[in-house]
Structures are given as structure tokens and as C-alpha cells.
């Protein structure tokens, strides 16, 4: 069965069960559990067996508690970047020793909570380091603590997602004058700094660039350990950012290629001197979810067809506002869930329901002719779509269903119910 046929099977059963309904549920998201498990299995197998590795899922990619608990059952931990994400991960049963707290703006309260729990923490800057020292002096902590380095190896294809550029807001800029020495001395003066962290960027960063950043991390840790005269830094947190293939149906992310690129570009990482933490998000889930929406109306404008659907900026925020950086594949299905015939196509815009003209998820795209009552599927939306809602027009946040047996007789379970409208408090 092709993946398109698999999606058609999911839609057909969701329609029969009333989960997708023209009037009551015109916009729904799905996550294919079997594919998630297969991909995570592949991740776990890709890294060397003789080195302890914690794969901490980047919760920003999908903060829904049932998703986090399923990933925990599959053997992952969690990387959190706010109090809210920390709460979600704990609710999902991920224990503090499998958590990592990152964020460039940790408040005193967030620092105290993470250090009180004993969760690992990556300090972003020298001011934060001073706060952490104060808390440790006041109350101690079991947490393993590190500092985030910006190796300043350069940006990838998407500037907004590149965190190792010369002026990035993240981490300590290692190549700025005097910074490397200042940081080495901070480590030597703080024997409780037992980790180091970098994250080169998210999507758009080629593997050799990621490996170059990780290599800088290893070189820094080697220098600290050699000057300390013992293995002070024990753990290297190499971040996430493995780019996802948004063009094909391959469900397996390129974890093998990623490990091969690190073996070549940062060979000391796998020498056995360090434990490893990863923080993948998009590459874990993106390919295994899709959003389905009804076509409410169609029209012809200036000689081009437009399908007005229920999926726009409120669910595909990045795609709508940065269409070149985040293009999505769109598929068409009829009202029974069957794929629209591929021979009858037209150049069309696929629009969302939001009240601004740029609310388009596809522009001038050759697609099967979409009609009123058809369905569109926005593919590869398992990561960062559920976590990026946009509340414009008070549109409802769609329900998300997990699917077992997607290829045969799909069974659906609710991951998130529809959130109808956030009431604005009366003045
Ligand atoms: C510190 C950190 N780790 C991990 C990630 C996850 O990146 P990705 O979802 O591309 O794997 C991000 C993404 O922004 C991040 O900022």
C-alpha cells in the first residue's frame, strides 16, 4: 500500500466514524503511531551501542502529553524550554533524570524548579551562570549542569532557525574575542559544570555544518578536561536539528547519515570519553502526522482556481508566514476519503479560513481539481504544527488523533480534543 493509500484509508475510516465531519469537525490532525515507533527504533539503532546516549525529544516540536508519554515508552527522554514544557514532560511520566532544560530566558523560578527536581540544565550565558551558582550555594542540587556554546560555525538555509551564526541569541559565542578563555576558566572554577551543549540549528542546516559545530563542542570539552587534569566534562549534549525530507514519503529520518557525518566531522565524539545527549524534534515526528481539512468553497479569481479550506495560518503558521522556508505537500481526497484522480489537475491556490489575503498553504500549485466538499491533507505536519497555534479569528484548535493499524483497520484515540474558543476576559 502506498502512503497516499494509507492516508486515504485513515480518512475513510475517520469519516465513517464521524471524527471528520463537514459541519462538526472540518479540521482534524492525525499521528500514525506505528510509523513513529518505527522511526524511533531506527534512531536508537543508529548510535554506537557502547556509548550511553539519552535521546531527549525536543518538546517544542509537539508538547501534547500523550505524545510525550508514548515517546517515553519508546525509550526517549525530553528536552524542555519552559516551565510549561517541563510540566507536560513530567505529566507524561518522564522522570527528571531523563530531562534536559534549555532556554535562553530561564527565570529564577524555572531555574529553581529544574535544579530542585534534579533535571539536567544547560546554562545559556554568564548572567544565568551566576544565578545558578547562587541557587547551588543556597540549596544544592542533584542536576547535571552544562553551558550552551555557540560555535559560530555559520547559518544554514533558514536564518530564523540557525543558532550557530555570528550574532545568534543562543549560548556563549565561542569565537568572540576572549570568550573561549573566559568560558574555560568558568568551567575550571566551577567543578559542578559537568556537561557542555550546542545546537547548531533546526532544519536547513546541512549535516557537515552540524558536525562542525559538534566538533567545536568536543574540542572545547577536551580542552577543559585536559586543563582540569581529569574528566570534568562527562556529557556532551549535541542538540537536534536533523533536517527532514519534506518532499517524499520516506518515513525514516536520516539518523544513519547524521551519525556518519558526526563520525567523519567530529570523530572524538564517539571515542568513548563522553556520554551523549541528543535533542531531536522534527525528525522524530514530522513525517508521521498530517492535517485534514474540508474544502468549504471554491472560486475562480483572476483566472486561477482557489480552494478555501479550514486549514490556514491557525494550524500552519510558519508555512503561511514563511512559505518559501516551510512549503508543505498537499493532497486532495473526495468526500468519501478516496484520492482525487491524478489526471484532472489545475493550478490552484489552497487557502485557509483566516481573514487576511496571505492565508494560503499552497500558491499556484498544480493539484487534482478541488471541489466543494473535498478534503485536503497537509502532509508532514506531525512536528511543530500542533505546537504553533495562532489564535487569530478565534478559530478552534483542531483535535489530534493517534492511529493504530493505519494500513488496515485504523483505531483512533484522542490525543487532544478540539479547543473551541479562548474566551477573552471581560474588562
Ligand atoms: C536547543 C534546541 N534543541 C533541539 C531543538 C530541536 O530541533 P529539531 O526539531 O530541528 O530537531 C531545538 C529547536 O529549535 C532547539 O532550540
From TrEMBL:
Residues 287-382 form the Orn/DAP/Arg decarboxylase 2 C-terminal domain. Its cofactor is pyridoxal 5'-phosphate. Keywords: Decarboxylase, Lyase, Pyridoxal phosphate. The keyword Lyase applies. It comes from the Bacteria. Residues 46-285 form the Orn/DAP/Arg decarboxylase 2 N-terminal domain. This is Diaminopimelate decarboxylase. The lineage of its organism: Bacteria, Bacillati, Actinomycetota, Actinomycetes, Micrococcales.
Amino acid at each position: 500500500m502506498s502512503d497516499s493509500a494509507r492516508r486515504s484509508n485513515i480518512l475513510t475510516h475517520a469519516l465513517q466514524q464521524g471524527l471528520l465531519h463537514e459541519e462538526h469537525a472540518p479540521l482534524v490532525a492525525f499521528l500514525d503511531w506505528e510509523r513513529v515507533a518505527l522511526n524511533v527504533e531506527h534512531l536508537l539503532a543508529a548510535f554506537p551501542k557502547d556509548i550511553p546516549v539519552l535521546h531527549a525529544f525536543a518538546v517544542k516540536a509537539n508538547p501534547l502529553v500523550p505524545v510525550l508519554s508514548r515517546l517515553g515508552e519508546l525509550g526517549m527522554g525530553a528536552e524542555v524550554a519552559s516551565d510549561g514544557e517541563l510540566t507536560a514532560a513530567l505529566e507524561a511520566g518522564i522522570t527528571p533524570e531523563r530531562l534536559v532544560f534549555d532556554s535562553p530566558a530561564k527565570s529564577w523560578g524555572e531555574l529553581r524548579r529544574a535544579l530542585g527536581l534534579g533535571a539536567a540544565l544547560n546554562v545559556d550565558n554568564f548572567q544565568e551562570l551566576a544565578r545558578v551558582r547562587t541557587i547551588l550555594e543556597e540549596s544544592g542540587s542533584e542536576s547535571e549542569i552544562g553551558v550552551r556554546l555557540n560555535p559560530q560555525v555559520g547559518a544554514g538555509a533558514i536564518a530564523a532557525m540557525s543558532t550557530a551564526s555570528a550574532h545568534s541569541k543562543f549560548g556563549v559565542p565561542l569565537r568572540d574575542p576572549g570568550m573561549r578563555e573566559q568560558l574555560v576558566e568558568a568551567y575550571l572554577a566551577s567543578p559542578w559544570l559537568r556537561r557542555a551543549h550546542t545546537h547548531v540549528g533546526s532544519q536547513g542546516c546541512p549535516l557537515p555544518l552540524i558536525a562542525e559545530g559538534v566538533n567545536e563542542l568536543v574540542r572545547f570539552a577536551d580542552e577543559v578536561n585536559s586543563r582540569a587534569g581529569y574528566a570534568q566534562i562527562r556529557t556532551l549534549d549535541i542538540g537536534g536539528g536533523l533536517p527532514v525530507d519534506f518532499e517524499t514519503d520516506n518515513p525514516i529520518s536520516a539518523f544513519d547519515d547524521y551519525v556518519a557525518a558526526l563520525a567523519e566531522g567530529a570523530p572524538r565524539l564517539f571515542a568513548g570519553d563522553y556520554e551523549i545527549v541528543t535533542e531531536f524534534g522534527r525528525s522524530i515526528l514530522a513525517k508521521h502526522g498530517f492535517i485534514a481539512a474540508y474544502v468549504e468553497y471554491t472560486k475562480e479569481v483572476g483566472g486561477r482556481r482557489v480552494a478555501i479550506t479550514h486549514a490556514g495560518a491557525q494550524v500552519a503558521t510558519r508555512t503561511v508566514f514563511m512559505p518559501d522556508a516551510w512549503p508543505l505537500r498537499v493532497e486532495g481526497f473526495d468526500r468519501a476519503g478516496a484520492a482525487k484522480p491524478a489526471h484532472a489537475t489545475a493550478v490552484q491556490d489552497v487557502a485557509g479560513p483566516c481573514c487576511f489575503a496571505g492565508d494560503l498553504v499552497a500558491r499556484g500549485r498544480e493539484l487534482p481539481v478541488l471541489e466543494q466538499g473535498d478534503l485536503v491533507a497537509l502532509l508532514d505536519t506531525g512536528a511543530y504544527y500542533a505546537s504553533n497555534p495562532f489564535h487569530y479569528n478565534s478559530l478552534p484548535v483542531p483535535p489530534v488523533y493517534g492511529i493504530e493499524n493505519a494500513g488496515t483497520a485504523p483505531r483512533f484515540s484522542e490525543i487532544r480534543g478540539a479547543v473551541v474558543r479562548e474566551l477573552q476576559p471581560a474588562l
